[in-house]
Amino acid sequence: MRALVLGGHGGLEQLSIRDDIPMPELEGPHSVRVRVEAVALNRLDLFVLRGWPGLVLQPDWVPVADCTGVVDAVGGAVTGVRVGDTVVLNPGVSCRECAYCLEDQQPLCLRYQIHGEHRRGSAAEFVVVPEWNLMSVPAHIPLAERAGFGLATLTAYRMVSGKARVQAGEQVLIWGIGGGVALAALQLAKARGATTWVTSSDPAKLERAKALGADHLLNHAIDDVPAVIRTATGKRGVDVVIDSVGTATWKRSLGSLGRGGRLVTCGGTSGPMVETDVRRLFMNQWTVSGSTMGSEREWREVAAEFAAGGLRPPVDSVFSLQQATEAYARLQSGQQFGKVVIQVAE
């Protein structure tokens, strides 16, 4: 079959299109093979390409977490989907047997794997996954939106609803609007009645975020974000900060957070090491939470919301499989607003 393949860790030169990758076979009675129509890139895919200590790719590694497609074959015990169903993928696979999984905390599973990182990914004509990682959705939903739904929206859903528990009337700061998680967090926070503050160094991205419902726009390259928020809120600060940037934003995130506030982080795109004044942490009684992906219950909830017509991920651009390197370059540039999609099917 045809697939995008990583020759090893490094730069865009490691990406190639191959026509001789073996067709994946069903792996068990609950296994499903999907004919992939399109995939979408996440920052994770750039990290996998670049590599990090301990991450070892098998030969002919197929990358990319997110995909949408049509069910091609099912194992004998599959009941959740049928051949011909249009589906979206939850890229996180757990053992479903350990204490964490039985408590619906699958992202904490010691055997947790993500497609394209620990398991062969989705950027191929076919992919095989467990049935519980798929959700049927209406085929009329635009292809690019289906492709871009999975990882980023599930991650944002756990952050906003599961960890921060955003309520109507609360103030929420979201860093780096334009990325998939940030845009999904904006939609989720607005749907829950929150007032939203979004940041970018690109005025055009801020204007597009305003069109999506953002209440306050901050250019983090020139604005003193904590000072602006403190002044506008009468020194109170925001109730929730959604931060996936890490080193570059951490102090400003805490400086923007009000007493009893909640900071939720899912990444460190600017670096992993942060500094916290523990006195401010306990005096202000902040809650700082890490978050990764989402549980099976959260997946069912957010996918049902998507299928019903909500949580549509904005799409930046669509590339063919042959243009996969250009798609990676687009995401790498940081200029995108929304999902970068690769159409796999002709």
Structure in words:
The protein is of the alpha/beta class and 346 residues long. The chain folds into two domains: 3-149 and 313-343, Quinone Oxidoreductase, Chain A, domain 1 (Alpha-Beta Complex), CATH 3.90.180.10; 154-290, Rossmann fold, CATH 3.40.50.720. The protein is 27% helix and 25% strand. The chain has eleven helices and 17 strands. The chain has helices spanning 43-50, 99-102, 143-147, 150-163, 180-191, 203-211, 225-232, 250-256, 278-283, 296-307, 324-333; strands at residues 3-6, 15-18, 31-41, 66-74, 86-89, 92-93, 113-114, 126-130, 134-136, 171-174, 195-200, 216-219, 238-243, 257-265, 287-290, 315-320, 339-343. Strands 3, 4, 5, 8, 9, 16 and 17 form a seven-stranded mixed sheet that branches. A six-stranded parallel sheet has the order 12-11-10-13-14-15, sandwiched between helices. Strands 1-2 form a two-stranded antiparallel ribbon. A hairpin with an 8-residue loop joins strand 1 (3-6) and strand 2 (15-18). Helix 4 packs across helix 10 (296-307) and helix 7 runs parallel beside helix 8. The longest helix has 14 residues, at 150-163. The relative contact order is 0.16. The mean pLDDT is 96.
